[in-house]
Amino acid sequence: MAPTNATALRQDLPSLLLLPPPPHPPTRAALQAAFEPSLRTAISKLKDEKLNEHGSILIVGLAWPILTGSSPRQKSLSWPEAQSVIAGLYSIVSVICARFSMPTEIHAGPGSVDVRIILVHHDPSELSVVEPRPAIETGNTVIVDLVTFASAYHPWRYIFHTSNELGYQLLSTYLRIFEHIHTIKQDQLVVVDGGLSMNLETRPPSSSSLQTATYPIVCLGGTFDHLHPGHKLLLTAAVLLLRVPDEPSSDPCRFIIGITGDELLKRKKYADLVQSWDERAMNIIEFLTSILQLSRKGWSEGRAPKLVKKEDEISALFRNDTILIQCVVIQDAFGPTITTEKMDVLVVSGETRSGGDAVNNRRKELGWHPLKIFEVDVLDAEDIIDSSTQTQSFATKISSTAIRQKKAEARI
Question: Looking at the domain assignment, is residue 348 inside a domain?
């Protein structure tokens, strides 16, 4: 039977998986018990349908009272905790995709599922009495609340929700908001297993003493070839450190992303399958659009950011010009960190920790202030997969090199 027009139109839309707060403490094992069944079911359904030639997109909205602060425009979060939870979720996603023999990068083609994790501030007690109304409200962090998320992210192909008390409470609140914005058909609501530990008592928001300072300028570097979960984790964790201005100005907060130039990658394994610099930069901007761009018109209009293309640079403005993303070509190990003095933070992974030290040593030689270094957790299969499964070299199995190798083997 041919799909109806409504069904056909939904095939190209992203889907949403609504997840209640993580268990406490959010260890990798606890996150797996709580969320692996939900993620596996949603990914499996989208994979099996194969309706989109470009692959499906699954937005995972983790609703969590993560922000603290008395003023709506002066909020803060615990960055170590936030990035650790994101790393745990992307690790689970990577293991699921490996079990399904699925590619993990964006634009991977039919049968693939491009998972993107977004933190959504939600304290159930805040919406228990007053009927929420659709609104786009931003603060001084990139994280938005549930009302803004529902108002800006729509329409959906499917809305997956968990089959437990917390999951149904979250869905009920979300639908109360969403019904003012878009019509949902019953076949779009899909229930998934809520996991084993979701009935544990969740912890209240972190105390202010544990909150992390945010910064006007954050920097990050890498190759970002075939954007995969490791890249998504790094980009998401880094953008959480931005201090977003209260209103549009000539001085937006800046996320500077150094992307290795094409010339430096010619000796990489399977170099003919390395994506061009422009493609890698645009994939980064597309991914960050999922986190940063807000519009009451949802996916249909207003999602594309303002782009400015110059030689060796592509920039994008978000949220009424309060956030500037700058993708710049780098031809060495330092990039803009030793050509731009005005910079606050460098985000690194566990594998690139030494690079951060080298950057600060070079800045010291130049007489510049050192950058504050934030280290993102690595993706890890430990505590996620059973002991009978080989876990060594897990990171290499989801690397850009491994992706290029699979593509090369597929050509033979």
Answer: yes
Cα separation of 23 and 85, whole Å?
A: 10
The pLDDT of residue 386 is: 47
Structure tokens at 402: 């491994």
pLDDT digits (tens, 9 = 90+) for 21-80: 999 899 999 999 999 999 999 999 999 886 667 789 999 999 999 999 877 778 999 999
Please list the ranges in the chain whose pLDDT falls under 70: 1-10, 50-52, 127-134, 197-209, 301-303, 381-397, 412
Distance CA 241, CA 325 (A): 13
Tell me the backbone φ, ψ of residue 220, rounded to 5 degrees. Answer: -155, 150
Q: Which domain holds residue 214?
A: 12-376
Domain membership of residue 412 (yes or no) is no
As a whole number of angstroms, the distance between CA 121 and CA 149 comes to 9
CA–CA distance, 210 with 177 (Å, rounded to integer)? 31
Encode burial over 267-279: b for 16+ CB neighbours within 10 A, e otherwise. Answer: ebebeebbbebee
Distance CA 82, CA 376 (A): 10
Domain membership of residue 5 (yes or no) is: no
Q: 3-state SS string over the chain? A: CCCCHHHHHHCCCCEEEEECCCCCCCCHHHHHHHHHHHHHHHHHHHHHHCCCCCCEEEEEEEEECCCEEEECCEEEECHHHHHHHHHHHHHHHHHHHHHCCCCCCCCCCCCCEEEEEEEEECCHHHHCCCCCCCCCCCCCCCCEEHHHHHHHCCCCCCEEEECCHHHHHHHHHHHHHHCCCCCCCHHHEEEECCCCCCCCCCCCCCCHHHCECCECEEEEEECCCCCCHHHHHHHHHHHCCECCCCCCCCCCEEEEEEEECHHHHCCCCCHHHCCCHHHHHHHHHHHHHHHHCCCCCCCCCCCCCEEEEECCEEEEEECCCCEEEEEEEECCCCHHHHCCCCCCEEEEEHHHHHHHHHHHHHHHHCCCCCCEEEEECCCCCCCCCCCCCCCCCHHHHCCHHHHHHHHHHHHC
**Which pTM value belongs to this model?**
0.91
State how many domains the chain has.
1
Whichever domain contains 254, its CATH number is 3.40.50.620
Dist. CA 323–CA 116, nearest whole Å: 20
Say if CB 218 and CB 238 are below 8 A apart. yes
Instruction: Tell me whether residue 256 is in a domain.
Output: yes
